[in-house]
Amino acid sequence: MTVPDLMDLPDLRRELLFTALRGVEGGSSLAFTIFQEIAVGIVEGRLPPGHEVNSAELARRFSTSRTPVREALLLLERESLVIIPPRRRPYVSPVDMAQVREIYEIRASLYALVSELLVARASDAEIAGLRRWQGLLESDAACGDVDAYFWHNVGFRNAEVSLAKNGELQRRLSSLGLQMHRFRHLSLSLPGRLLHSVADHERLVNAYADRDAGLAAAVSRSLVMRGYRAIERAGGV
Amino acid sequence: MTVPDLMDLPDLRRELLFTALRGVEGGSSLAFTIFQEIAVGIVEGRLPPGHEVNSAELARRFSTSRTPVREALLLLERESLVIIPPRRRPYVSPVDMAQVREIYEIRASLYALVSELLVARASDAEIAGLRRWQGLLESDAACGDVDAYFWHNVGFRNAEVSLAKNGELQRRLSSLGLQMHRFRHLSLSLPGRLLHSVADHERLVNAYADRDAGLAAAVSRSLVMRGYRAIERAGGV
DNA sequence: CTCTCCCGAAGTGTCGACACCTTGCGATCC
DNA sequence: GGATCGCAAGGTGTCGACACTTCGGGAGAG
Q1: In the prediction, which pLDDT does B2 show?
Q2: CB contacts < 8 A (A, B)
Q3: How far apart are CA A140 and CA B53, in angstroms?
Q4: Within 10 Å of residue A163's Cβ, how many Cβ atoms?
Q5: How many Å apart are B65 CA and D30 C1'?
Q6: Which residue in the set B77, B103, B168 is minimally distant from A24, CB to CB?
């Protein structure tokens, strides 16, 4: 957990997006670099859904051969960011509202699990550490700094997950998170949402401190689903 | 769900193992074939943990070039069946008890979610369809046919998942399932386990029919965790 | 003017080759 | 004899090439 809140936002961003995925890159780190580059482009919206990402052009742009690019595309496909139809050009996968719902349902369930495991396994000191993130969230919300709030929120979640001490779960949630970041901008546009969220986080940390697994799980789940409903109300994708 | 119970067991097996993963093969179907071949070898235990799977030899065995084999290895890595250290030979990933626990925790949570969603979304007819699988399980348990019981159990779970109508969830559970099948033989060795399991399945289907989401989720979760505890008691891996 | 067919441009899957790296074994040295 | 070094065998990551397929536009028929 080091001291990620001291990092500036761009570094924090890449850090949070990819940490749990590193080490799964399949040997070739060149492919992983290309993968990151394109992945960031997709989640930032620079590469919109449907946009072609053909291996030949990418190979030229990165001045490598097509082999590492193909590997990168396979990694992107495994994160559901890209679709590779046989014998046809790969393209950035579309996001429809149904899929957003599916992903949020899974995330709600898994974060509830995180909360349960955390209550059972985290030390008091570790739980106290979460309060630092919560403090950041509060000050961000007070300033109305939506972007900082979002990324510190991601940091909070990551800290939670690592306290659940389940590496497999961490990897799966990270993978889901990458895909979810594509429509994040939709979920924080609504006013009042930040304050709701701050209150929920406080309730959550208190439940952790009280070692109330049931309550923590319930709050976690409702926190995620509230995010989904915000997107839904904002008119979907 | 067609009529999978009419298929003979070997077909059913491959079908159940890979259906949800098909379509994610990344264009090259040659790579997917190799992937399946090796994956089956691993989950059947023919390729034990630690066994080397280097691309050069595999290319010779399948009489292709190394490129499709490398792709297959990447797919295997994404399913956590193989580890690919940089610049070193890939090998079948070891399974330690901690990881087994991690996977079962996730599966318990996700199957609880499946049950909730199923109650909300499946039609009465679809739920009635589950009773057919349950019937198979009962007769298998009566005969003491452990192998048939296992695979029909997998079929039952698959049917449940597809009734939850969440494709993303289906894919993630299928991926977890593939890895889990590596230590399945451990979980059904204990006597009396089949009867317990049959009773649980009946309770589960009844909860579905009663549209009792809370009960169904609880039974689902306990069903999975009972499997884990069976492995644990059997002395782990 | 529209539809069809054809052909060239360009991309995909696969291949064999190459430089670099790891590994295991045998010669060498203490 | 046991540890150390070096070298050959073989694997890995990357590359450029090739056949086949798809895509898009332009010639030609209706």
Answers
A1: 43
A2: 82
A3: 50
A4: 22
A5: 50
A6: B77
**pLDDT per residue over A133-169, tens digit each?**
999 999 999 888 888 888 889 899 999 999 999 999 9
| A163 in Cβ contact with A126 (< 8 Å) | yes
Distances (CA, A) of A196 to A57, A185, A191, A201, B185: 45, 17, 10, 9, 48
3-state secondary structure of B51: coil
Question: Alpha-carbon distance B231 to B237, whole Å?
Answer: 8
pTM of the model: 0.91
- Residue A83: strand pairing partners: A91
The DSSP 8-state label assigned to residue B139 in this structure reads: H
Judging contacts by C-beta atoms under 8 Å, the chain B residues touching residue A102 are 166-169
Amino acid B60 CA to nucleotide D19 C1' distance, rounded Å:
22
Token pair listed for B38: 């090796």
Give the range among B6-10, B31-35, B184-188 with minimum mean pLDDT: B6-10
Task: Outline where DSSP puts E strands in B69-224.
Answer: 82-83, 91-92
Inter-CA distances, A18 with A23, A24, A39, A175, B78, Å: 10, 10, 10, 9, 15
Task: Give yes or no for B220 touching A (CB within 8 A).
Answer: no
Q: What distance in Å separates the CA atoms of residue A30 and residue A24, rounded to the nearest whole number? A: 13
Determine the distance in angstroms separating the CA of A45 from the nearest CA of chain B, rounded to an integer.
22
**From CA B61, how far away is CA A216, in angstroms rounded?**
53
- With a CB cutoff of 8 Å and minimum separation 6, the contacts of B82 are B38, B42, B53, B73, B76, B90, B91, B92, B93
| Contact predicate B217/B115, CB 8 Å | yes
Query: Which nucleotide is closest to A52, CA to C1'?
Result: C11
Neighbours of A47 (CB within 10 A): 19
